[in-house]
Structures are given as structure tokens and as C-alpha cells.
Automatic annotation (TrEMBL):
Descriptive protein name: Uncharacterized protein
Pfam families from the UniProt entry: BubE
UniProt organism field: Pseudoxanthomonas japonensis
InterPro entries per UniProt: DUF6527 (IPR045384)
Source lineage: Bacteria, Pseudomonadati, Pseudomonadota, Gammaproteobacteria, Lysobacterales
């Protein structure tokens, strides 16, 4: 039941390819990617917890930490995103949606706030 509610409330993100760099002001619910020669090498999004931080995700295998981005079905990141410092947000990004890990609190509220764009 809770899982079903989440899938209704949790909004889907847009996947946007940025030109040369990430925009100075990033829209919410958007995963930006930078690509060169058809190869995505960096991604960024505003933290879905609502803290307004920008999360930069390296997609290059020879740098750490590194995420793998599957662009199908709205985009999926491997592994999970975990901000151990600062807000402590920990989530999986799968098929364009944020799935909070079990250790996170107020997740329904966060999803609702994301959907309302605040
Ligand atoms: Zn955050």
C-alpha cells in the first residue's frame, strides 16, 4: 500500500542533456547530463530531499566515486546516491524516479514536496 502510494506521489524526473555545462539555475525534478561523442560523462540534479544542494555525479569509470547511468525509461543510476555529510539523503534513482532507502525519514513528505515543486 505504502509502496503503491509512493509510486503515485513520487514525481517523475525529466532527463535533460545540457549543452556544454550544467545550467547555473537547475530546475527541480530534472536530471541533467553532459555528453560528448554520444557518451554521457557527468550528471547533476538538485538534491531531492529539499535541501537545495546540487548533486554532481561523475559517470567516468576511471574516476571515483562513479555512477553508471542507464538512459532508458527516464534514466537509472547505479549505485545509490548517498550524501553522508550534509543532509544525509540516500536514494536510488530508478527509471526517472527517486526511491528513498529504508533509513530515510519523512519520505512521503519529501515526495509530496518534490511533486509540489517546493
Ligand atoms: Zn539534500
Amino acid at each position: 500500500m505504502l509502496q503503491r502510494m509512493r509510486s503515485i506521489i513520487g514525481p517523475r524526473f525529466s532527463l535533460v542533456e545540457a549543452e556544454d555545462d550544467f545550467p547555473a539555475v537547475m530546475r527541480k525534478r530534472t536530471l541533467y547530463v553532459l555528453a560528448e561523442d554520444g557518451q554521457v560523462w557527468a550528471a547533476a540534479m538538485t538534491c531531492p530531499c529539499g535541501c537545495k544542494a546540487i548533486l554532481h555525479l561523475n559517470l567516468l569509470a576511471d574516476q571515483r566515486p562513479c555512477w553508471h547511468l542507464n538512459l532508458r525509461d527516464g534514466g537509472s543510476l547505479m549505485p545509490s546516491v548517498w550524501r553522508k555529510d550534509h543532509c544525509g539523503a540516500h536514494f536510488w534513482f530508478r527509471e526517472g524516479r527517486v526511491h528513498w532507502t529504508a533509513d530515510q525519514r519523512n519520505t512521503l513528505w519529501r515526495d509530496l514536496r518534490l511533486r509540489l515543486g517546493r
